[in-house]
Amino acid sequence: MYLHLVSALDPAHKRVQISNDRGRVNGWTGHDRVFGIRVAVDGVARPGAADKAAASAPANRP
Description:
By secondary structure, this protein is mostly beta strands. It contains one helix and five strands, in the order βββββα. Strands 1-2-3 form a three-stranded antiparallel beta sheet, with no helix packed on it. It has a two-stranded antiparallel ribbon with strand order 4-5. The longest helix is centred in the last third of the chain and has 7 residues, at 49-55. The radius of gyration is 12 Å and the shape is globular.
């Protein structure tokens, strides 16, 4: 498993664009391959991340 930055969303095709920490795009992957959302870094909450994590919980997935 790798940690990637989600740099774009394509809801129509249920996929996300993933990028690395050097600003390069790695490509697209399906929602089913996203296993988690980081909600904090070094104890500091990331704005909006908790809402995204709650919205993508398994109970809310189609």
